[in-house]
Design a protein that fits this description.
about 230 residues, mainly alpha, 8 helices, 3 strands, elongated
Length: about 230
């Protein structure tokens, strides 16, 4: 168990460092004012219209970096700072979230796949570790390495595997949304060269948070798989 705690601690530390860097980048590029004077909400609305999307609403949501696209009710939810601010960071985030709306409108296969996993992962992700741990504990208590405890642990591994798969499927979805956002900002001459570099850098660090999460999920899955299969041997 000590190895597991060290692993989780290391992942949490890296995740915190990347998240802190992202917030720092966001604050920095929030000071780079857009020459066109458009707010995040206006940037989002224009990107949607330029892609022929008129059934998606752009709304404000509380919090910082709480921005997201909701495919169920077709809304681009921008945090308060992004919605009203007129800077490179706001432009980057707003365009990125609209990138997801474009993916949805064009039935981007990775987004479709991710959406199908959401109902399952939302139920299993929080309980998978406990199921695996419970199975291992039952194996230890009964002294049986191939009984019900083993199958419970394997069920937990499957649940954990689905969450890990979800994390990796999220990567192309997020990177593609950023690529769509940056391409649109450049092609439509929405930002200056300096503003573009700021938007690109901010989105790069945002993507890294998903990469760290995916690698952390994989590391945890491998650790528990070794524990379960190793105990059976």
């Amino acid at each position: 168990m000590m190895t597991y705690y060290i692993l989780i601690g290391a992942i949490a530390l890296i995740s915190w460092a990347v998240s802190a860097k992202l917030k720092s980048k966001f604050r920095h590029y929030s000071k780079v004012q857009l020459r066109n004077g458009m707010s995040g909400a206006e940037i989002a609305q224009k990107m949607l219209e330029d892609h022929g999307i008129y059934d998606v609403k752009v709304i404000s949501t509380p919090g910082m970096l709480t921005d997201h696209y909701n495919p169920k009710n077709k809304t681009v939810n921008l945090s308060e700072g992004v919605y009203s601010q007129r800077n490179a960071a706001a432009a980057a985030v707003a365009a990125h979230e609209c990138g997801h709306a474009v993916q949805h409108a064009q039935a981007y296969e990775w987004l479709t796949m991710r959406s199908k996993l959401v109902p399952v992962v939302s139920v299993t992700s929080n309980m998978s570790t406990w199921v695996v741990f419970g199975g291992i504990a039952l194996m230890a208590a009964t002294g049986a390495t191939g009984g019900i405890g083993f199958y419970i642990a394997v069920a937990g591994l499957i649940m954990m595997g689905l969450a890990t798969l979800f994390s990796f499927i999220t990567l192309p979805v997020e990177y593609d949304a950023s690529n769509r956002a940056l391409a649109w900002l450049k092609q439509k001459n929405m930002v200056s060269q300096q503003e573009y570099k700021g938007a690109e850098d901010a989105l790069k660090w945002a993507a890294r948070t998903y990469l760290v999460a995916a690698l952390g999920a994989l590391a945890s899955l491998i650790y528990w798989a070794v524990q379960v299969l190793g105990a059976r041997d």
